[in-house]
């Protein structure tokens, strides 16, 4: 029996719109399965381009990773650099994906403005390097993205420390096109926008089967079915019913998040004078962002996930206090967890499950900008303007990750290894004569 997942800070503090449960029979050009950013962005783009859409969500809008994330808008990959992408996909396909990713920040904030979605701040995003080796990697990353004309710059160690409040950093990437958003407000804004354009959105409507018919597909729920020419599977890491086809192509990664009590503005000004969100390069990533009411949102992974909520709340709050030299350990007012979908090559993928039946996933923990761009790609795929294998996101065979049951334990193993390598890298940086570590 899964452990109950407490409400997120976002769900508890955001006005939510309720949508009806699907009943009876309906027809649509496109049936979208899943009411997270991917499904909602696709529904919005398709509705904007005149397609009739039915979106079916098993629970409620933003029930999955889209409502459980930290709200960093990062038009970038978590583990892939531009050079890696080109080497993995080839020059032409690599360039297409990179150009798509590069537009992600612009698109998120443009949609937020266009559809009146509140709580979106384009403050930029920092990626500080915790070691001299990673400073080199990040500096090259900056140069590679600059070749795409992106607003990305390298900050030296002193500037990185001033802007994050953390002394060990050896420099940082600063991406002016990033920022933060309230993810639940964003998902609901996408849903409202799509519904206003005629998309029919349903909650508590779990899809139990997708069946081929003579002229398309029959998408079955417990209380009725939708006949559609196209089906988009946007169920990310979930594995129930037809979602299993997509879920098995990725490794699920459980991540814990907290929102602290509101902090004193003077304390914040000491460590984050510009209120910029940051996620560093450690294997056990240290990240934080601020909310409008001055809470810190931060996260982490547990080595032993069983019953980890309370333990992780304490661990993450202790880490914030220690890294940011806060006057006391902040109270964690909210703790929740979510599941990110990780692909073996750390890149996003499209999959074809049948004629006009496709899915998209694999944002590897950097999904707000990427899933928003999935919306455009999936709309292009459905409306036939671009053949599937020429879209900007690579089309892959929908294969189960090899040894997936064992691979599910891999994140814990990599976390232990990462904790040790982080420590070694920081020690090396502190002892190197050329280091400017304080
Ligand atoms: C803890 C955490 C922190 C993260 N932080 C960030 C961040 O700060 N910035 C960032 O860019 N990315 C972040 N990510 C990644 C990002 O949240 C995801 O990449 C993104 O939300 C994926 O969106 P999605 O729509 O593909 O999937 P989801 O949001 O998971 O949506 C899938 C939906 O499908 C529904 N569903 C499943 N099965 C069925 C079915 N059979 N019938 C109908 N519906 C079904 C589910 O209920 C769910 O609502 C984070 C992820 C996690 C888990």
Keywords summarizing the entry:
FAD/NAD(P)-binding domain; 9-stranded mixed beta sheet; alpha+beta; 438 residues; 5-stranded antiparallel beta sheet; single chain; binds flavin-adenine dinucleotide
Report on this structure.
Helix content is 36%, strand content 23%. It has 438 residues and is of the alpha+beta class. The protein has a domain at 9-69 and 184-250 and 344-401: FAD/NAD(P)-binding domain, CATH 3.50.50. Helix 4 packs across helix 5 (91-102). The protein is globular. The chain starts with 8 loop residues before the first helix and ends in a 7-residue tail after the last helix.
Q: Helicity, in percent?
A: 25-40%
Radius of gyration: 21 Å
Q: Classify the beta-strand content into a percent band.
A: 15-25%
In CATH terms, the superfamily of the domain at 9-69 and 184-250 and 344-401 is: FAD/NAD(P)-binding domain
Record field, number of beta strands: 20
List each distinct ligand once: flavin-adenine dinucleotide
CATH topology of the domain at 9-69 and 184-250 and 344-401: FAD/NAD(P)-binding domain
**Which overall shape is indicated by the principal axes computed on the Cα atoms?**
globular
The CATH first-level class of the domain at 9-69 and 184-250 and 344-401 comes to Alpha Beta
Largest sheet: 9 strands, mixed
Q: For the residues shown, what is the average pLDDT?
A: 92
Number of helical runs? 15
- What would you call the structural class? alpha+beta
Reported CATH architecture of the domain at 9-69 and 184-250 and 344-401: 3-Layer(bba) Sandwich
What are the low-pLDDT stretches, counting only 5+ consecutive residues below 50?
Answer: none
Distance between the termini: 48 Å
